[in-house]
Specification:
Layout (H helix, E strand, L loop, with lengths): L10 H60 L7 H14 L3 E8 L2 E5 L3 E6 L10 E4 L10 E8 L2 E8 H11 L4 E6 L2 E3 L5 E3 L7 E7 L6 E6 L3 H9 L1 H17 L10 H10 L3 E10 L5 E12 L3 E3 L5 H7 L2 H20 L6 E7 L8 H11 L6 E7 L9 H12 L3 E7 L5 H7 L4 E4 L1 H5 L5 H16 L3 E4 L5 H9 L4 E3 L7 E2 H10 L1
Parallel strand pairs: 13-15, 15-16, 16-17, 17-18, 18-19, 19-20
Antiparallel strand pairs: 1-2, 1-6, 2-3, 4-5, 5-6, 7-8, 7-11, 8-9, 10-11, 12-13, 12-20, 12-21, 13-14
Length: 511
């Protein structure tokens, strides 16, 4: 755009405009960085609290199941049921001990056998949970007791405070995180406290479990916002000053006009710059190729391949992800249809969808067009639900998934175990596959807690009769572990990195 000639201003006015032009981006920048730091810390504490809730609920699920299995035995002689109590401790992770109660008297324990100890239901929050400072075996180690009652019968299962503090310490390593049950609370150093929770001046977050009567609280100490800015933003401070100087020089002469990112995405879509990359999946038992996940890449004419995290979130926010995915599906069909037709077994093709795809029924037609491009029965189309945006269970979404299943399309939950709505999707939608997030796979053999979570996810998929895919498999140790635990499909650098269409079809023909 040609410059517009304007009358020259007085020297004093020009100086004022120059100074204001220079100060404006600096002041606004500092204000924005301060607000951004506050939002980041708030998101961190909220996510930390949510993750702690999930981990504690997972632990308590083991204790609740142990108590449920033992409750029918309450009232029977201790000699007859003591082995069953000890078996629950042996079989279930996080269950430290179990006890049976009859008429408010604990009479049998997995630790001591025959006992006689009065138990008051009033000591348990909602009659269910009690956080104790310790017991006669470990007086200095806190423990959490789960109680399940039916009339005169009750069953207790105990969770060691070491596991609780371990979760508080690992999940809350960047925040202050505590667990509260009734009037008592536990800190990450496994110290038992009674009374009000500590005050977190910065980004406080308190979240209660919807399934068990406990609460977690998270936050940061005073001054954390400035400490965060000073540790994370020094380069940005220098940039702000630099931009302030530049703005001061050019603010009097030029009025910049920013280019709309959506316009650039529209241009790239019309130019077919969004292309598919393929990462192979293999069968868990024989390691033969079973399919591929289709990944979107932006082949920018000047920048080259642009990372997905730099454009996918904005594409989802603007709704452009829908036509971009449609283009990706058409390119995929054109690339793979000739090669897949010669395979002996149906080839799994996974494509990511988001909440934007579930607002109407257009996705059904896109999938129908995609399937018609292949020989009948030659592929299995798997739509992977991502969780960057929540998919609401509306009448449209239920109708959408019903029609997709009628077409033979399978549904998978991507990155299962990390998103805030994974279990909600299991309840609300007819899901066929779970994809284990690579963060759990990476901890195989290194972290016991993640190993328990991974085993629980695999066990959950087996109980629900769901297929299971493990992402991020990079070592033989991980592969052998997942195969031994019956994981159906594996995906990761051990078997192949994402590759462009021509390279993938050539590799597929050899496999």
């Amino acid at each position: 755009m040609p410059l517009t000639v304007k009358p020259r201003r007085k020297r004093g006015t020009r100086i004022v405009v120059t100074v204001l032009s220079g100060l404006l981006p600096v002041v606004l920048g500092f204000a924005i960085l301060y607000m951004q730091a506050g939002r980041t810390l708030s998101q961190s504490t909220a996510q930390t609290a949510e993750e702690a809730i999930r981990q504690f609920e997972l632990m308590l699920d083991n204790n609740a199941q142990a108590a449920a299995d033992l409750l029918p035995l309450a009232g029977q002689p201790c000699a007859d049921v003591n082995l069953a109590l000890r078996e629950q401790v042996t079989r279930r992770p996080f269950v430290r001990s179990t006890s049976l109660i009859w008429d408010n008297t604990a009479y049998c324990s997995s630790l001591f056998g025959d006992i006689q100890e009065k138990i008051s239901a009033g000591n348990y929050t909602h009659g269910q949970l009690s956080l104790l400072e310790g017991n006669s075996v470990t007086p200095d180690s806190a423990l959490l007791v789960y109680r399940l009652s039916d009339g005169e019968k009750s069953a207790l299962s105990t969770l060691d405070g070491f596991h609780l503090s371990n979760v508080l310490r690992l999940i809350g390593r960047k925040t202050s995180l505590v667990l509260q049950v009734g009037p008592h609370w536990l800190s990450p150093d496994m110290t038992f406290h009674t009374g009000p929770l500590p005050v977190f001046p910065v980004a406080p977050a308190t979240l209660g479990s919807s399934r068990y009567p406990f609460t977690v609280a998270a936050g940061f100490p005073e001054g954390e916002t400035w400490r965060y800015m000073s540790s994370e933003y020094p380069p940005l401070f220098s940039l702000l000053i630099f931009f302030g100087v530049i703005a001061g020089f050019i603010g009097h002469f030029l009025q910049g006009r920013s280019t709309s990112p959506s316009h650039e995405l529209h241009r790239a879509l019309e130019a077919a710059e969004f292309i598919p990359y393929f990462q192979p999946l293999v069968y868990g038992d024989n390691k033969k190729w079973s399919g591929a996940e289709v990944l979107m890449r932006w082949n920018h004419p000047k920048e080259g391949l642009v990372r997905p995290d730099l454009f996918i979130p904005f594409a989802e926010h603007s709704g452009l992800i829908v036509p971009m995915t449609r283009s990706l599906m058409r390119q995929t069909a054109q690339l793979l249809a000739p090669t897949v037709a010669s395979l002996q077994e149906p080839f799994h093709i996974g494509i990511n969808i988001t909440a934007s795809h579930c607002k109407d029924l257009e996705l059904v037609e896109d999938c129908r067009e995609f399937l018609e491009a292949f020989a009948p029965g030659s592929i299995i189309l798997v739509l992977e639900l991502t969780e960057r945006e929540l998919i609401a269970p509306t009448a449209i979404t239920h109708q959408l998934f019903e029609q997709l299943h009628a077409l033979g399309v399978k549904i998978a939950i991507d990155d299962f175990g990390t998103g805030h709505s994974s279990l909600g999707y299991l309840r609300q939608f007819n899901v066929d596959y779970l994809k284990i997030d690579q963060s759990f796979v990476a901890m195989i053999g290194a972290d016991a807690l993640s190993g328990h979570i991974l085993d629980s996810i695999i066990e959950l998929s087996a109980k629900l009769d769901l297929g299971i895919v493990a992402e991020g498999v990079e070592t033989l140790e991980q592969s052998d572990y997942l195969t031994a635990h019956g994981v159906n499909f594996l995906q990761g650098y051990l078997y192949g990195r994402p590759m462009p269409g021509a390279e993938f079809t050539e590799a597929l023909s050899h496999h």
